[in-house]
């Protein structure tokens, strides 16, 4: 009888110790998990960024906000845009607001831009284009690969620039528009990006590699826990054709509301203006 009581007491102590140990291990496990969450993510940053565009295709679509800052000769201008993009169809729609003119005036109507494989459509382009008509630009003819010309960088093209990532480091964890993200900083090569890009962007990135002052593109990019780009900022440099001065361009693309409807319809042939337009 005494032995049974002693066995029960011993068994009770052992069970209690076991519970405490489990709790301790659980707390330690939580601490380790939290440390992992705060530490660098698994995977080589270069490889992670080279496949970031694929996560956008899987997401399907999103809303986007863009900003294009240009600086030359002591003057800085910013062009902003907002819209939607379908990463599977490679179609997007942006409302682009031009900056103030030197007199401080702003045209109240934003330029509507439709982004499509091989083409950029612009409405309210001005410069003699009839009201309600669209201007179509063949992006294959643009020396910058349409990374700058439209006043906004095509969101999927911006993502595919990262396919040419040569070097990258994990900076840390932060938030972008309320989303937990991982911040990376690095440099991409446009020639390498062109070789690895999808068919629709291969020619554009190759043109940019030849048309910009340098094929090297420094960037900062922020990925969420699903590997989707939430924000990417590229720094391009090209030579002004008239003054031969280098122009610094910072293109920022913010992506959010993944899965949002992105119904983009291209204009009919009769709605496209075929005349000449003035340069602005």
What would your notes on this structure say?
The protein is of the alpha+beta class and 280 residues long. It is 28% helix and 36% strand. The protein has six helices and eleven strands. Strands 6-5-4-3-2-1-11-10-9-8-7 form an eleven-stranded antiparallel sheet. Strand 9 (216-224) and strand 10 form a beta hairpin. Helix 5 (190-196) runs antiparallel to helix 6 (199-211). It is globular and about 55 Å long. The model is unreliable at 1-38 (pLDDT under 50).
Concise description?
The chain is α+β, with helices and mostly antiparallel strands and 280 residues long.
Helices and strands, with pairings:
Blueprint: H1 2-38, H2 45-50, H3 52-59, E1 61-72, E2 75-86, E3 91-97, E4 111-116, E5 119-123, E6 134-138, H4 155-161, E7 165-176, E8 179-189, H5 190-196, H6 199-211, E9 216-224, E10 229-239, E11 246-256
Antiparallel strand pairs: 1-2, 1-11, 2-3, 3-4, 4-5, 5-6, 7-8, 8-9, 9-10, 10-11
Helix pairs in contact: 5-6
């Amino acid at each position: 009888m005494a032995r049974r009581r002693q066995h029960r007491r011993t068994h009770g102590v052992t069970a209690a110790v076991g519970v405490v140990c489990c709790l301790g291990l659980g707390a330690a496990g939580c601490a380790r998990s939290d440390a992992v969450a705060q530490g660098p993510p698994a995977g080589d940053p270069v490889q992670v960024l080279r496949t970031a565009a694929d996560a956008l295709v899987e997401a399907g679509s999103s809303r986007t906000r863009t900003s294009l800052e240009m600086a030359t000769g002591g003057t800085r201008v910013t062009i902003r845009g907002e819209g939607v993009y379908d990463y599977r169809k490679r179609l997007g729609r942006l409302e682009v607001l031009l900056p103030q003119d030197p007199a401080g005036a702003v045209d109240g109507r934003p330029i509507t831009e439709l982004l499509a494989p091989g083409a950029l459509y612009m409405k309210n382009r001005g410069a003699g284009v009839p009201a309600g008509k669209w201007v179509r630009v063949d992006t294959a003819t643009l020396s910058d690969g349409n990374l700058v010309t439209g006043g906004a960088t095509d969101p999927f093209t911006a993502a595919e620039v990262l396919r040419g990532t040569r070097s990258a480091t994990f900076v840390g964890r932060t938030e972008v528009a309320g989303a937990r993200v991982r911040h990376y900083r690095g440099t991409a090569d446009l020639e390498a990006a062109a070789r690895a890009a999808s068919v629709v962007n291969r020619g554009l990135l190759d043109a940019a590699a030849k048309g910009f002052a340098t094929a090297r593109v420094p960037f900062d990019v922020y990925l969420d826990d699903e590997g989707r780009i939430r924000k990417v900022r590229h720094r391009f440099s090209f030579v002004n054709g008239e003054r031969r001065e280098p122009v610094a361009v910072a293109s920022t693309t913010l992506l959010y509301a993944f899965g949002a409807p992105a119904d983009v319809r291209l204009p009919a042939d009769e709605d496209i203006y075929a005349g000449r337009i003035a340069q602005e």
